[in-house]
Amino acid sequence: MIRIVLPAHLRTLARVGEEVEIQVEGSATQRSVLDALEASYPVLRGTIRGHATHRRRPFVRFFACEQDLSHESPDAPLPDAVARGTEPFLVVGAMAGG
Fold this sequence. Notes:
The chain has helices spanning 8-14, 30-40, 80-84, and strands at 2-5, 19-22, 60-64, 67-68, 89-93. It has 98 residues and is an alpha+beta fold. It has one domain (2-93): Ubiquitin-like (UB roll), CATH 3.10.20. The protein has a 5-stranded mixed beta sheet. Strand 3 (60-64) and strand 4 (67-68) form a beta hairpin.
């Protein structure tokens, strides 16, 4: 099981608690985790990644094990602790402005 922590506005949209658990087939990568999340919660399609490009939307960041994974390849393996479910994959809404 992969644990995912979503920002408040996406939790409200998906009608879930702070953390969701999903099953991922094969390697745990950003792409496989987000594909499984969107399959389980179709209302989230297009909110984290663009509909057509499947690229991370502006002002959305990904973290795991105290590392910013936002600019990593979507097919790079996630840290082992995330794959084992001991650490969550964090989807964070970035702040802008001054």
